[in-house]
């Protein structure tokens, strides 16, 4: 563990460890929110543009297809009253088609779609012009001429017209598929990333906990060993301490205690030696005195 962390107090070290773990989990949560936002934004874009446009074009296509069949049936029929009978429906269909045309034009964003839409718009003009001519001929009773125009011009134009609309519809569906794939890819990437972050967070928590416990227990074991050696009378043991935390303070106190005990023992030893020397001198003096006394008595 780095020295600057080892020198922190135990309380600060524990706080630092838990703060680091919480920070990593907080980062994981932020990443999760960010990835979910990306998926939500992609979904919003898909709903806001491609799906909306696809539905408009699909409805427009059905409206036009119905109009084509109605025009064909009217032209083929021998009943001239069908023109008047379908006049209201024809007007409503034309109005709806114009509304779809305008709404679709406003939603298109890609150049590819806009270019194709311009082609469709030109075909629409030819389609409407030919249709109106056929209905006018039919109304005037010119059935053969109306049928000839239907076969030679209206039907080919209608096929190209609806074909282009179908192409535009397919483009939108392709865009939807692409966005759906992007959303799925975002989901897969997010899942892998979140699993990885979770694993890293757990591993970091385990390693941090182990290092934290190790940074506390190892110095305590060393302090315990020092105390045991001192209690057994080993006052010459070298105590190295470079820590400044609580355990370092404990080791420093043990070191001071060892020095103090060594000083006391040294002083006691010196005192004992002085007493022994004095006792020896006294004993020698007594012997000398006894010898002199015996000499004088004889």
Automatic annotation (TrEMBL):
<dbReference type="InterPro" id="IPR051310">
    <property type="entry name" value="MCP_chemotaxis"/>
</dbReference>
<dbReference type="InterPro" id="IPR024478">
    <property type="entry name" value="HlyB_4HB_MCP"/>
</dbReference>
<dbReference type="GO" id="GO:0005886">
    <property type="term" value="C:plasma membrane"/>
</dbReference>
<dbReference type="Pfam" id="PF12729">
    <property type="entry name" value="4HB_MCP_1"/>
</dbReference>
<comment type="similarity">
    <text>Belongs to the methyl-accepting chemotaxis (MCP) protein family.</text>
</comment>
<feature type="transmembrane region" description="Helical">
    <location>
        <begin position="192"/>
        <end position="213"/>
    </location>
</feature>
<feature type="transmembrane region" description="Helical">
    <location>
        <begin position="16"/>
        <end position="36"/>
    </location>
</feature>
<protein>
    <submittedName>
        <fullName>Methyl-accepting chemotaxis sensory transducer</fullName>
    </submittedName>
</protein>
<keyword id="KW-0812">Transmembrane</keyword>
<dbReference type="GO" id="GO:0007165">
    <property type="term" value="P:signal transduction"/>
</dbReference>
<dbReference type="GO" id="GO:0006935">
    <property type="term" value="P:chemotaxis"/>
</dbReference>
<dbReference type="Pfam" id="PF00672">
    <property type="entry name" value="HAMP"/>
</dbReference>
<keyword id="KW-0472">Membrane</keyword>
<keyword id="KW-0145">Chemotaxis</keyword>
<keyword id="KW-1133">Transmembrane helix</keyword>
<dbReference type="InterPro" id="IPR047347">
    <property type="entry name" value="YvaQ-like_sensor"/>
</dbReference>
<dbReference type="InterPro" id="IPR003660">
    <property type="entry name" value="HAMP_dom"/>
</dbReference>
<feature type="domain" description="HAMP">
    <location>
        <begin position="214"/>
        <end position="266"/>
    </location>
</feature>
<dbReference type="GO" id="GO:0004888">
    <property type="term" value="F:transmembrane signaling receptor activity"/>
</dbReference>
